[in-house]
Amino acid sequence: MATRAKAKKRRPAAKKRSLTEYKRKRDFATTAEPVARRAPRRKQELPIFVVQHHKASHDHHDFRLEHDGVLLSWAVPKHVSTDPTVKRLAVQVEDHPLDYATFQGSIPEGEYGAGTVKTWDIGTYEPEGDFAEGLEKGKLSFVLHGKKLKGDWTLVRMQPRPGERPGKPQWLLMRHHLTK
Ligand code: MN
What we know:
This protein has 180 residues and is mainly beta.
């Protein structure tokens, strides 16, 4: 196929965040979880982050960062660690509505994620650089302003591995190392 050698270098359009998958997985007549509603873009101070302690079939943390009207979401099977020498596996899951940041309570049996959800930490964060670009490239750096979690953190996406569940990219969550 003939292509122009000097095709203009264009950045691919950032992926639109969507709550379709969130909605598909839940029955809102049964669960008290927030409905799939995109929040209007907020022009206020700083976006929020939340870590939820989710006691489901597996006891884990959910790490969420507000971005583009939704919460980017990762399940952290071994819980978030504040130890800067520890990297935690963080499996990216479907975007959640912004309202989910303040959701606490139980998810009934038979529903997706059945169990209890409690806030473990909540606060604001400062994205470093362009987050849309970071999502494409698989590296997000940010400063957390929570009660338990503070300072520089990084999420790095790993190369897909054979057998990885499609649509659930694996990342590593770690406190930023200032010395290598
Ligand atoms: Mn969860």
